[in-house]
Amino acid sequence: MREEFSFFTQSGNKIRASVYYQDYSISKPCLILVHGFKGFKDWGFWPYTAEYFSNRDFNVVSFNFSHNGVGESLTEFDELEKFADNTISLEVSELNEIIDTVKNGGFGKIKCSSIGLVGHSRGGAVSILAASNNKNVDALAVWASVAKLDRYTERQKKEWREKGFIEVLNSRTNQMMRMNVALLEDIEANKNSSLNIEKAVKSLNKPFLIIHGEQDLTVPVDEGKMLFDYSDKSLTEFEIIPSTGHTFDIVHPFESSNTKFDRVLEKTLSFFKKYLNNN
Length: 279
What we know:
Elements: E1 2-8, E2 14-20, E3 27-34, H1 45-54, E4 59-64, H2 80-85, H3 88-103, E5 111-120, H4 122-131, E6 139-143, H5 154-163, E7 165-170, E8 175-180, H6 181-189, H7 197-202, E9 208-213, H8 221-230, E10 236-241, H9 259-275
Parallel strand pairs: 3-4, 3-5, 5-6, 6-9, 9-10
Antiparallel strand pairs: 1-2, 2-4, 7-8
């Protein structure tokens, strides 16, 4: 079963979510799927991933950040003004609201015995930052996660500040997507505190799974190694998937899974089966 929800955050921003479940009368571990930069809940592997876990005794919540650029269409970047105004701190705040809403039974009739996060790319970093401070998160898995949020050269930053924005090309849609200087200012103002990924991993104290493609050109596998270096090895598992990149050879629109992405799902499933209770 898939059910659609929308609600407004405490800041008045609209969140669209999909909930996947088989039997809402039974309390089950719940997974929250967290998309990354230029991502959305109906991109590529996300609906397939949600169905995969829903069919294996998990309730699953997949959602769009309010400023990810995808609006009513659910599949097109039709809110580029919001995309331009997005910040990491806003996403962390929204993920914390989602976590607490799931915990408090705010998504229909599903009952959650425990909560796990699955974050991809920048969504991995946002998941780490939220999980490190949110007592309702019991375990965390990140796929192709970034290990640093300041990813820009000094030249880029100078141009960004002078113009008030920079633009990135979405090669899939051929759209130029603007990011306002508020994003840079947020990262720089909070790099030693609320947006410090190293600090967040070191204070995580929860089961942590890191999966990374060996040939990831978008976020090099060295960033996965950095996260592992920061982590408590007694609570952390690290898996490198050979001969694959940032999306594990999955494209949008989704065509089919493959042996590499199957391995990602199988490893993530065994991790959550091990660490999320079903009381």
